[in-house]
Design brief:
By secondary structure, the chain is of the alpha+beta class. The protein has one domain (33-166): Umud Fragment, subunit A (Ribbon), CATH 2.10.109.10. It is built from one helix and eleven strands, in the order H-E-E-E-E-E-E-E-E-E-E-E. It has one helix at residues 2-32, and strands at residues 33-37, 52-56, 67-70, 80-87, 91-95, 100-103, 106-107, 127-128, 133-137, 155-156, 160-169. Strands 1-2-11-3-4-9-10 form a seven-stranded antiparallel beta sheet.
Length: 178
C-alpha cells in the first residue's frame, strides 16, 4: 500500500508541475510576450520575410527606433511591423528628393534603412505627431506602406501589440527568390 501511495504522490507532483508550467506559459504569452512572423519586404534589410519574432509587451514600446507590431485596421487587414520614427509632440518632415527624414528639424541617422526615403504617398509634411500616437515607417522605405499613407497615418499607441525583442528564427528574403 505504501508503494502505491508513493507512486500516486509522485504522479500528483508531476501533474502539478505540468499544470504550473502550462499556466506560466499561457500567462507569459497573454501578458508579457507573443510571437509574430514577418510578411513581406517592408523591413528589409533589418528583418526578412518569414522571420519569427518574439514580441514583448513590457516597457516602452513607443520609443523612437523601436520596431513594433501594429494591429491598426486598414485595407490589407494584417498586422504591420514597422519602426517608430517619432513620438507624440514631435514633428516629422521628409525631403523626398534627398531621401532623408527629419524629426524636430534634425536629420535623423538611419543606418538601418535599405534605401533613401523617396516614396511619399498622400500624407502632408511637415506633420506633428498627436498625443497618444507615433509615426512609423518600414526600413525598406520605397517598398513599405506605413505612416506616410493617410490610411495608416499616425498610429494610436493602443494599436501597438508590442515591441520586437528578438528574432527567434531567420526567414527567407523574397528577393532571394528572384
Amino acid at each position: 500500500m505504501g508503494e502505491k501511495k508513493t507512486r500516486f504522490n509522485g504522479l500528483c507532483e508531476w501533474v502539478e508541475s505540468v499544470v504550473a508550467a502550462v499556466v506560466a506559459v499561457v500567462l507569459l504569452f497573454t501578458f508579457a510576450a507573443r510571437t509574430s512572423v514577418v510578411s513581406g519586404i517592408s523591413m528589409e534589410r533589418t528583418l526578412q520575410n518569414g522571420d519569427l519574432l518574439l514580441i514583448t509587451r513590457l516597457g516602452d514600446e513607443a520609443a523612437a527606433g523601436n520596431i513594433v507590431v501594429i494591429t491598426k485596421p486598414y485595407s490589407h487587414g494584417e498586422p504591420l511591423i514597422k519602426r517608430v520614427i517619432a513620438t507624440e509632440g514631435q514633428t516629422v518632415d521628409i525631403n523626398f528628393n534627398l531621401g532623408v527624414v527629419f524629426v524636430n528639424g534634425e536629420m535623423i541617422e538611419e543606418t538601418y534603412v535599405n534605401c533613401p526615403t523617396n516614396v511619399s504617398y498622400d500624407m502632408k509634411f511637415p506633420a506633428t505627431v498627436p498625443e497618444g500616437c507615433v509615426f512609423c515607417m518600414g526600413d525598406n522605405r520605397n517598398d513599405s506602406y506605413d505612416s506616410r499613407a493617410a490610411e495608416i497615418g499616425m498610429i494610436d499607441k493602443r494599436y501597438i501589440l508590442g515591441r520586437v525583442a528578438v528574432r527567434l528564427m531567420r526567414g527567407k528574403s523574397l528577393l532571394e527568390d528572384a
